[in-house]
Amino acid sequence: MYDLFVLGQLMDESMSGYLMQQILQQLVGRNRKISFGMIYPLFKRLSEAGYINLVEEQSDNGNRPKKVASITKEGRIRFKELMEQVVPLNPNLEFTYSVKFRNFHQVDLKLRLKILGDYRNYLLENQNLLKQQFHDLPQTNIS
């Protein structure tokens, strides 16, 4: 789930783990805490997979160095694969679609339409389920 976010951000520009954490925290809001203890292992895993390059640079304030990530050719391929994948029904579904929508400028119109169609189908199924629950509610014996 966070792989798509990180790779999508890096499609636009290289960035430090600090900046990545700040952007992701804004996206998820107060409901989730995004720590550096989550970002840097994610960077390491993506680097080991060959999807990103990590370079240590001197920080602007002269303190300890910062790790700056940039996407590789393999990372660009992986990003497209993740954008093409069907979003599974799980608690992260809305977040995943949000990340996909944020990255529409990185993919062609055909893929955008597919993602929007998938999301529409999910919403329609949810709407039908809610209608059924509403219909069944009067017959439900609740003590």
Protein model, in words:
This protein has six helices and three strands. The chain is 60% helix and 10% strand. Strands 1-3-2 form a three-stranded antiparallel sheet. The longest helix has 28 residues, at 109-136. α1 packs across α4, α1 packs parallel to α5 and α2 packs across α3.
Mean pLDDT: 91
Query: What structural class should be given to the helix and strand makeup?
Result: mainly alpha
Could you give a short account of the major beta sheet? 3 strands, antiparallel
Which oligomeric state applies?
single chain
User: Which radius of gyration do the C-alpha atoms yield?
Assistant: 19 Å
Shape descriptor reads elongated
Report, as a whole number of angstroms, the end-to-end distance.
40 Å
In the sheet with the most strands, the strands line up as 1-3-2
- Percentage of helical residues? 55-70%
Unreliable residue stretches: none
DSSP E strands, number: 3
Order of helices and strands: HEHHEEHHH
β-sheet strand percentage: 5-15%
Topology:
Blueprint: H1 2-12, E1 15-16, H2 17-28, H3 36-48, E2 52-57, E3 66-71, H4 73-84, H5 93-102, H6 109-136
Antiparallel strand pairs: 1-3, 2-3
